[in-house]
Every structure is written in structure tokens, then in C-alpha cells.
Backbone:
């Protein structure tokens, strides 16, 4: 993590209210913890146990709370609480503590999970461990995210189902009282929308990877290790079994099942269920092999008709 | 509205600087106003007029500013200003007061309307009553939203028209000096984009419901009680009359009219205006009945040609 | 920049702790700097050098720090520091200083560039001069934006590539260590996603204009002065040469080249490279002229077959 610009040890010491021991003109370019620290960087040591390691590290500057002689080419910055000073500096450099108030107090977030600025977590949202939620992601009330999940910016998890009843007074909205469950090891691209269930859960199965701008409707259940390319749209109440691949801009109507291992080529449109293990293409979709034959035939039509006329 | 975890009346009293009267070990799980309050919850009473009702309610704890004996199974928390304490607690629990500075001071927001965190309202935006604007919605300067409108997260209302003039120096941008008007009872899904007019208004008519990721271009006028499924894209200067249904991923070119009650099936592409009251399909679009016949015919082509050749 | 409502000079003076010289009943409608100020507006002058210009300007009110006689139809507001008062007023009116903490300290932003609220800039992002970044835009670490660039709300620049390797344990993510470079004079619509390169740059060439909800994959290089309509999706590692036009909902597979000046009509799907200077249509795409002939022929099929049968 680098400073906006390199800074002399003297200036950094002044900023941190530290006493500077050693060459105060040395330039410091950033901060790093002791296992990763490089030339030009500042690390910290708050225990005499680690001081040898710190002094032997590549660090150019070390925050310490005891007095040592600075080794050649290193500078020590003496403060009361090296860890606290280092942490504060790290927060300042990350600059991502903003908008923390966008997380509902009833949300539960696991250890190692990073929430970037602008992330909104509604009431009773739960997020597992070691997830990375990128800036400006919105997760509505009650949604449940597993471990090791990555969600990219702009994505919206848990918006209401598109579900109305026509009445003489216009459309009546049916409440979405379900939720969204995202299992472990899922990655969701930027600007996706995954709606909550009406009465049940919308599920994204373990290990499934979803590209940008993918829409997944209410109560749809996606299996494990699926791959959906950008701009795929899946309506509500669809079942997608494991290992299914949908390429870009594929559209899937509501209430269908796509069998295990099916592959659907780009821009195809599904109005009926598909058996697994087969590759499909077209709108309306057909087996890709047949569709390709049909396309070849259509190309030959002018010649065929010409000949027949003769 | 629940606390992150149930809390004893004693701990809550300490947190609120209140005097605790009654069983201080009772657990409080959340807060609720007097008409809705349930077992385990805290409510408030700031007028002797309502104290009977409060004492007779299901509330487990009551914020009061006068001394009463706590009825069996209830606890009273004595503070100077019950309403203020309750409101502060409510704000804290909602956690949605963040980013309030993202609302321009010239924006006008009607009674009963909820702006969630991360909502941006530009200059002179007006929003009617009883709307719900979900987190991270952006509404550009001057847009006008009616009553009972719901807008889901990530949606952008009022971005500039996609409108350029080619010149030897590249594309010249034409300013979008129009706006967007959204009438009463409209619901707009997550991550939609509705551009402002170039000189006039882009309009979404009363009662129309729009799913996620729908694009609506500049100066387009949508009628009442229309239904647009996810990933529909409508270009600029289109007129969509009342009661039109567009299914998923339909694309509409600029400058067309779609007649009242027309239904367009998924992935269709419109390059010309459509009469109302008819169902359409295909890209380019045709009457669905004809298109279905054509598709059936194409499927029989191999057999037909085979026979003719013989 | 206008006040929510016009305000009398007397009220404004009271609000600013200023002494009001001249007609205190004059209405002030907003603020503007000296080169742009109009009737009814307030400007400021903090140097005797500019006082003549200020007094001769169209301004109705002027913040000054020296005593002058107010000319006919003008009012002076005397304060200690006109510039500071004007700046504070401007910030208050813009209301867009919120969430400033969403900008990494290592980001560099050029003069004249406006960052609206909710904008996130990651580490080492650089943005040139005179750009306008609309609310709730996310720019990931290390992305580089040129001069005179406009990015509309909800757009995400620099999310990770959709790039996995299948393994017995599920998909392994390949790190995206590249970045995104957006050249001068580009405009990007609302809710677009432009992924970072895996090892290299994703590039948007000078003067190219992109509509809403357009997806551009990793390591794709877009030329100059291209035009992409809404909901276009371009996969990774594609080369789009200069002056290419893609209409709405066009899909482009990975690893292709689209030649200079090609035009691709709406909803077309590209699975192979295209020569420049030609208009294309269809999914799979063909030259538009051929595709149109084919469509006409298909429409005549019933009649032709009927006749042949006879």
C-alpha cells in the first residue's frame, strides 16, 4: 500500500508523532506487513519477539516501541503503540472506511470478509468468511452469502420478484417474502441482478461463476459449477442443473429446467426445458448440430429454388 | 426492527441513560411503534393520553417520561424525551441515515417516501409521497417522480441521451436539456437506465411495471399499465401505448410506435411500428402466428427439398 | 447553481453573517462565478483588481470585503473572506461533498474534473482534466482515464476478467493483473461494465461513445470514434477498429476483429471476424444485403413450395 507520494522519514515521523532514529532523509514509499515488506516501505514491530526479524527484513523504516540502534540503511520510528499507528495509517491509505453506516447493524459479516465503500447490507444479511464485496454492491434484507464469495461492483442481490397480478385497477404487486442464498466459492460479476424468491429461495450453487450484467429471476435455482457469460437473462422459477454453460446474451423463459452439463451458445432463446449433456443454439433454441444444418440449408435456398424452377 | 442481539432491559437502560423500572433482566429483542408492538419489543409513550394503551399493549418494554408501576412482565425505561430516544434508536437500527449528503438541498421529497442509503438526488429532483427508493439509486437533476413509486437498487434515472452529431473532429455531443417524468404507481427494477429527454420528457406512464436491467432511451413515452420483462431495450423517441407487454430481451429501434395492448415475445427485434392488440415474435419481428408457421416450414425444408429433387 | 428558492438579499446576508449594502429586498436566485454570472445571481470579489469587473457584471449581488457604494440595481454583501463564503455556499448547494472518503488517497484527479457523490476510485486510479464522473460510478485500482471523459452513473470500470480454468476441484480463477485505459473525449453511458485486462490493457479509443448497459470484456481494444448502442456485449480479447458502429444488443464473441468502419445492425451475433466498411445483420451475422434477401426468400417459401408441388 503506497503513499500518494514518497515521503521522508522525518516528515512521516512528524505526521505520526514519532521519534525518528537513523537517517531521517530516507524516502518511504508505502507500508507493508513484516512478511511482505520491501525496500522503501514501512513495517511495524510491537513485540521484542519479532524485533530481530523486523531488523533483518527488507523494510526501510520500522515502527517500534523500544529503543534500538537503527541498522545501516534503515530508520526507526519510535511510538507508544506501533500496531495502532500502523493500522490507522493502513485505514487512511485504503480510504475504504467511508459509508460504513450503509451496513445494517443486524447484518453479520464473517472473519476475513472485506466490504468496500458504498456497499449496502440490509437487515439480517449474513455473509461468510473471506468474501470480497466490491464497492457499491447492494444486498437486500435477509440474503445469505457463503464463504469465499466475490461480488463485483454495482450488483444487486435480493431485489423484489417481477411478479404482479392483473386487476381492473392495474397490476397488484405480490410480495416477495423469500430470499437469496449464494453458496461458497461463487463469483458474481459487475452489475448483475439476482432477485429474491417470492416464497422460497433463489439459489446460486457452490462454485458457479457469473459474468457481468447477468439477470437471475425469483425462485430460480442454479446448480454447482455453472458458467454464465455476460448479459444472460434467466426468468423466475427456472432450475439449472450442475455444470451448465450459458454463453453471452442467452435468454431463458420461466419455469424451465436445463439438464446437467448442457451448453447453450450465445444469443439463444429457451422457451422449453433442455436435456443435459447436449449443445444448443438458436432462438427458439434447437440442438446446435441441427440448427447449423438448417442454417446451411437456408443459405443454399436461392440456388435450390433456381434449379427447381428450371 | 430488531437489535443485532437481544439485550437485557438493564443494558438497554444503561445505553439510553434511562432509569429502569421493573424486571431489569427481561430481554428486549427490538423496537416497534405502539400499534404494531409485539412480545419482547420496546415501544414508547410520550403522552399520558396513550399510557393506558401502552401499558395494555404487547410491549415488553416502554419508554416513558412519567413514573408508573410496571405491570407484570413489563419493564419501563424512564427518560426525558421518549419520542426522541425512540427515534434515535430507530435511526441507529435502520442504519440508513448514511450518505444523506447525497441528496441535493434543492430536491423535494414527499411525505412517507423512504430514501435508502447511497441514493443520489440531483438538483430540483421532485419525488412524491409514499415512494421507496432502494439503495444506490441515482436520479439526475430535474427528474420528477410521482406517488407510490418503487425504484430498485442500481437504477439510473435521467442520464444523458445517446445523441451525437458526426463531425470531422469526431462526435459532437448534443445537450440533453429535457428530463424524465415517472407517473404514480410505477415500479422499476434493479439496474435499469432511463435517459432524460433531449428537449422534451421521457415518460413512464401510471401503473407500468419494469423488470431489472431495462433500458429506455431519451424522449420515449411509455403508456399506462405496461409490463416490460428483464433486459428489454427501447431506443429513443419511441411511443409505447397503454397495456403493452414486452418479454425479456426485446429490442426496439428508435422512432417507432407500439400500439395499445400489443404483446411482443422474448428476444424479438422491432425495426418498424406495430399495430396494437396482436402478439409478435422474431428478429425482425412478425406476427407470432406467421412466424411460428415459418419456423415449422423451415424445419420441414430438408424433407420437402428431398422429395422435390426426387 | 440555484438556491432551492429565491431569497432576499437581507435573508441571505443574515445567513452569511454579512452586512447588506443597497436594496436588501432584491431577490437572489443563485450563485455564479464572475465570467458567467447572470441577473439575479450572487458572485464574489476578493481583490480590488477585479472590483470594477464585478460591479460592471450582470450580478445582482456581490460578496465583497471592502466597502463600496452599491450601483443601481445591485446589492453588496460585506464579509471578511468573500472567496471562502462563496465556496462554502457552492459546496452547500452542490451537496456533493458526501462520500469523499470513497476516493483512495493514491488516486490522482486532474484539474476541472468533477467527482460526484458515491464515486469510488481505487488505488492509483488516474483521471485526467475536465472529466465528469457521475454519482455511484466505481473505478477499480489502477485504471487510467484521459481528459474530457464523461462516465454516467452506475458504470463499473476495471472489474476482474471472466476467466477461469476448469479443474477437478471446480473453476480456478486466473488473476486479472491488467488494467483499463480510457482515452480522451470518450463518453460512457450508465450501468456499463468494462473489465480490466488479464495481463494487458482493455482500451477504449479516443472519441468513442458508448450508450447504457454496454459490456466490454478483458483485454479488448476498441478503436477511435466508435459508436456502441445500448446493451451491446463484447467478449474478451476482441479488436474493434476505428469508426465501427454496433447497434443495440449486438453480441460479439471473444478473439475476433471488426474492421474499420463496419456497421452491425441491432441484435446481430458475431462468431467470426468481420471486414471493415460493410453493413452486417443477423445471428449468426451475414452481410446485411444477403441477409435481407434471405429473409425475403423465406417469407415467399410457402408460396414457392405450393407452386412447386403443383
Residues:
Amino acid at each position: 500500500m503506497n503513499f500518494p507520494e514518497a515521503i521522508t522519514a522525518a516528515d512521516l515521523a512528524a505526521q505520526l508523532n514519532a521519534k525518528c532514529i537513523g537517517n531521517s532523509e530516507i524516502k518511504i514509499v508505502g507500508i507493508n506487513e513484516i512478511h511482505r515488506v520491501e525496500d522503501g516501505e514501512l513495517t511495524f514491530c510491537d513485540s521484542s519477539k519479532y524485533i530481530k526479524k523486523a531488523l533483518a527484513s527488507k523494510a526501510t523504516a520500522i515502527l517500534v516501541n523500544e529503543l534500538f540502534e537503527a541498522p545501516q540503511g534503515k530508520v526507526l520510528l519510535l511510538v507508544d503503540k506501533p500496531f495502532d499507528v500502523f493500522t490507522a495509517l493502513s485505514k487512511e491509505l485504503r480510504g475504504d472506511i467511508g459509508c460504513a453506516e450503509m451496513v445494517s447493524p443486524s447484518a453479520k459479516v464473517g472473519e476475513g470478509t472485506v466490504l468496500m465503500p458504498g456497499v449496502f447490507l440490509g437487515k439480517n444479511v449474513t455473509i461468510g468468511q473471506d468474501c470480497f464485496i466490491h464497492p457499491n454492491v447492494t444486498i437486500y434484507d435477509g440474503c445469505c452469502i457463503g464463504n469465499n464469495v466475490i461480488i463485483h461492483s454495482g450488483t444487486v442481490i435480493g431485489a423484489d420478484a417481477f411478479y404482479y397480478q392483473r386487476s381492473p385497477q392495474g397490476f397488484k404487486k405480490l410480495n416477495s417474502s423469500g430470499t437469496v442464498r449464494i453458496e461458497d466459492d461463487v463469483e458474481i460479476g459487475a452489475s448483475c441482478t439476482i432477485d429474491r424468491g417470492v416464497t422460497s429461495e433463489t439459489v446460486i450453487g457452490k462454485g458457479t461463476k457469473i459474468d457481468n450484467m447477468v439477470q437471475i429471476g425469483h425462485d430460480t435455482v442454479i446448480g454447482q459449477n455453472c458458467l454464465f457469460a455476460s448479459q444472460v437473462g434467466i426468468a423466475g422459477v427456472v432450475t439449472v442443473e450442475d455444470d451448465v454453460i450459458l454463453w453471452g446474451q442467452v435468454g431463458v423463459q420461466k419455469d424451465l429446467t436445463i439438464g446437467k452439463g448442457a451448453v447453450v451458445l450465445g444469443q439463444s432463446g429457451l422457451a422449453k426445458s433442455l436435456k443435459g449433456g447436449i449443445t444448443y443454439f438458436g432462438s427458439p433454441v434447437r440442438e446446435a448440430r441441427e440448427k447449423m444444418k438448417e442454417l446451411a440449408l437456408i443459405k443454399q435456398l436461392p440456388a435450390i429454388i433456381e434449379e427447381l424452377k428450371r
